[in-house]
Amino acid sequence: ELGQYVSSKxxxxxxSELKAVTDKARGEVVERCQxxxxxxxxxxxxxDADDTTLWTxxxxxxxxxxxxxxxxxxxxxxxxxxxxxxPGMAELVSAAKEAGCEIIGLTGRSDxxxxxxxxxxxxxxxxxxxxxxxxxxxxxxxxELPQWVTCAKEKCTTIEFKSSVRKHIENDLxxxxxxxxxxxxxxxxxxxxxxxxxxxxxxxxxx
Length: 207
Known about the structure:
9% strand, 207 residues, alpha/beta
């Protein structure tokens, strides 16, 4: 029957495709983390939040698939709902952490969702994030962003923002990003990572 697996947390074409990506990426990232540590480097992986580490389908359904930042804050903060982990990602991130990689969040979520995002991740099996490194605030106004974020226009695109943050992580903070993970191509374009991993997203596309 059409739709019978749409919201299943156990089996679906989406979960099968995601598992294929995470299974392959886990081995590659663990090897890169270990190799970088052996060479005296500071390896890290960077992670988008929504539908990369945390699976938003339940929230989308609650919103009746009409997303808005205000509804997101209401769902996650006012009525606190913990989102489940994106299938396979908690295991991948834990393996990367054990192999010596730092775990760095790189999300379009607003800064006031930072604490609740980290708490949610911990509750669903992700390793603790270094308290000195947080999900980086994103705002569309270039003037409100850190000086090291480079935007071509007054408003910063997701590609400009995230690639600038990755450049800062590598060039200024001294990390080597061995894997960058996102469910949107805008999470990945712009370089500054040894490898970029595109996770499937069955419900929406963001330029």
